User: What shape does this take?
Amino acid sequence: MLHTFFCFLLTGACFAQQTAAPAPLDLVKQGEKLNSEGKQDDALALYRQALEMSPSLYEAHLASGIALDLKGNYADARQHLTKAVEIAAADAKQQALRTMAFSFAFEGNATGAAKFEQQVFDARMFARDFTGAAETANELARIYLESGDTANAFKWYRSGYETAQHKPDLSDADKNLWLFRWENAQARIAARSGKADEAQQHVAAAKAALDKANNPDQARFFPYLTGYVAFYTGDFKTAIADLQKADQRDPLILALLGESYEKSGDRSQAMDYYRKVLASNAHNPTNAFARPLAKKKLAGGS
Assistant: This one.
C-alpha cells in the first residue's frame, strides 16, 4: 500500500511538471526561433504571453521590438524598445541602445539612430574600449551612408578610423585593416557622390591596405566594395559580376544585386534577389535597408 502511495505521488509530480506553463524566458527563446524562421506573428504571440506573466521582462520587450521591425510596424516596435532601453541591466544597455538605433535605420531615419549610437560610442570611449568605439562609429557611418547622408557618413567613418588608432600596441596588421576600412568607406562615399575617378583611387588604396593586412577573413569584403562602387557609378554589368562573388548571406548585397539586375532590364532576376532578401530575418544595419527596399519592390513600387 505504501509503495502504491509513493508511486501515486511520483506520478502526480511528473504530471505536474509536464503540464506546468513554460517560464517567460522559455517562451522568448521559442519565439526567437520562430522569428528566425520568418514567423514573426507566431513569435509575437509567444512574446505577449511572456509579458503577461512578466511585464518588465527585458528579453521579451527587446525581442518584440525586433519582430515588429521586421514586420514593418516601426512605431509599435519602438514602444517595446523604449521599454527595453529603460529596464536593461548595465551589461545589456548597449545591446538595447544599438537595437533601438537599428529600428530607426529600418525607417531610413539616421538622425534618430544617431541619438542611440552616440550613447554607445560615448560609453565605449569612457571605458577606453577604442576598438569597440571605432566599430560603433563605423556602424553609425554606414547607417548615414545608406540613408544618403554622405557628409555625416564621412565624418563618422573618419572618427572610426581615428578612434581605432588610439588602441595601445595596435599591430601593423590591424593598422592596415583599419586603413582598408577607411579607404573602403571613402570609395563608397565617392561613388555615391558621383565621383567615379576618386572612388577608383580609394578602391586601389583599399586593395593595397588589404594585401598588407594579410587577413583572409576580410578578403570577402573586397568584391562587395568593387560591386558597390560599380553600382553607384552606373556600371551594372560589373556590379553584378562582383557582387555575385561577395557574401550571399548579406541582405544588402542581395538587394544591390536585385537593383543591378533591375537597372539592366532583367526584372525576373531582380525579383528573385528581392525574394532572397526577405529570407533574412536579421535585425542589423544591412537588413534595415535591404528588407524595406525588397518589400517595396516586390509590392510593385519603384
Q: What stands out?
A: Residues 247-302 form one domain.
